[in-house]
Design a protein that fits this description.
GO molecular function: DNA binding
Protein name: Transcriptional regulator with XRE-family HTH domain
Mean pLDDT: 80
CATH class of the largest domain: Alpha Beta
Largest sheet: 5 strands, antiparallel
Low-confidence stretches: 1-40
Organism: Sphaerisporangium krabiense
Distance between the termini: 104 Å
Number of strands: 5
InterPro entries: Cro/C1-type_HTH (IPR001387), Lambda_DNA-bd_dom_sf (IPR010982), MLTR_LBD (IPR041413)
Strand content: 5-15%
Shape: elongated
Structural class: alpha+beta
Radius of gyration: 29 Å
Helix content: 25-40%
Number of helices: 13
Strand order of the largest sheet: 2-1-5-4-3
CATH architecture of the largest domain: 2-Layer Sandwich
């Protein structure tokens, strides 16, 4: 019996040399699509990253009972999905590197469940090809020069806020005028939060209704740049729950921009203080502004000076 030169016989289980053993449907002519998929390596990296983060957590880390013996270390996929509030199939596909859409909210839930730190969270967003959600600047993001400017503005009260009205920095006159806000802890160290949640007797604004409406409109104008961000939506949700007045004003969808306005404050120790507030956007960090309060009369100026000279007279309660 003769045999053709240059041919060999292979069993059905032996793959062709140099090629992976793949299903018939995925081979050329087998009905599958084997064209390279853009982002394939990124998806593979995403899958490996998620598996590694899941493997490092134990059930006890997330408050789950240990259960039966586990074949692999870490949480199961269905446990991650349950804790993150997503479908098991969807999370499985995400961890397998399949090309599925992942929203900011869902990725943020997965990041919280897997206990990702800031660097890991940013890495997750890049691998998932989702625009990175940058947190609002905090106190540590301000340059030293900003604190120096605030100090040199004395005796004018001045402070730095971000778009959400978080208080980031202030000078001594500002602390004398608003001691409750300066002493507050998050979320209390937030001007709009205190304006809507502090007792009426302690609200510093004489025209509280107008000031609240203006603050909500300014917050709404900044909110549009953070649509879909969990931290912003959570802030609005919590404040709406704490204050029906805020919820009603928020539903009006009014918008406004920070600017120069006259404000009248009622301080519990020295009485009425009239000042012109001037809001100036800072170049860095983004979405921050410095607000300077200039007394509109000598009586108001004298009352601020007296508060600075008598720190023991400042009230312990809010404002």
């Amino acid at each position: 019996m003769t045999r053709d030169v240059g041919t060999t016989r292979r069993t059905a289980r032996e793959p062709a040399a140099g090629r992976p053993d793949e299903p018939e449907a995925s081979r050329p002519g087998g009905g599958g699509d084997v064209r390279p998929r853009p982002g394939g390596s990124r998806r593979s990296e995403l899958a490996a990253f998620l598996r590694s983060r899941r493997a490092r957590l134990s059930p006890a880390d997330v408050g789950l009972p240990p259960g039966l013996r586990r074949r692999t270390p870490g949480l199961r996929r269905e446990e991650v999905a349950q804790l993150a509030g997503v479908g098991v199939t969807w999370y499985t596909w995400l961890e397998q590197g399949r090309r599925i859409n992942a929203s900011v909210q869902v990725l943020d839930a997965v990041a919280r469940t897997l206990r990702l730190d800031t660097a890991e969270r940013e890495h997750l967003y890049r691998l998932a090809d989702v625009p990175e959600v940058r947190p609002l600047p905090g106190c540590d993001a301000l340059e030293p020069e900003i604190h120096e400017i605030l100090a040199n503005l004395d005796p004018l009260p001045a402070a730095v806020y971000n778009t959400r009205y978080d208080l980031l920095a202030w000078n001594v006159p500002y602390a004398a005028l608003f001691p409750g806000l300066v002493r507050g802890e998050p979320p209390g160290r937030n001007a709009i939060w205190q304006c809507f949640t502090c007792p009426t007797c302690c609200n510093p604004f004489v025209d509280a209704v107008d000031e609240r409406a203006l603050m909500v409109a300014t917050l709404r104008a900044g909110f549009v740049r953070h649509l879909g961000e969990p931290s912003w939506e959570d802030f609005v949700r919590r404040l709406s729950k704490e204050s029906p007045t805020f919820a009603a004003m928020w539903a009006d969808h009014e918008v406004a921009r920070p600017g120069t306005r006259m404000k009248i404050f009622q301080h519990s120790v020295v009485g009425t203080v009239r000042a012109r507030s001037t809001s100036m956007a800072l170049a860095t960090p983004p979405e921050t502004r410095m607000v300077v309060y200039t007394p509109m009369d000598e009586e108001s100026r004298a009352r601020i000076t007296w508060l600075m000279d008598h720190p023991e007279a400042r009230p312990d309660h809010t404002h």
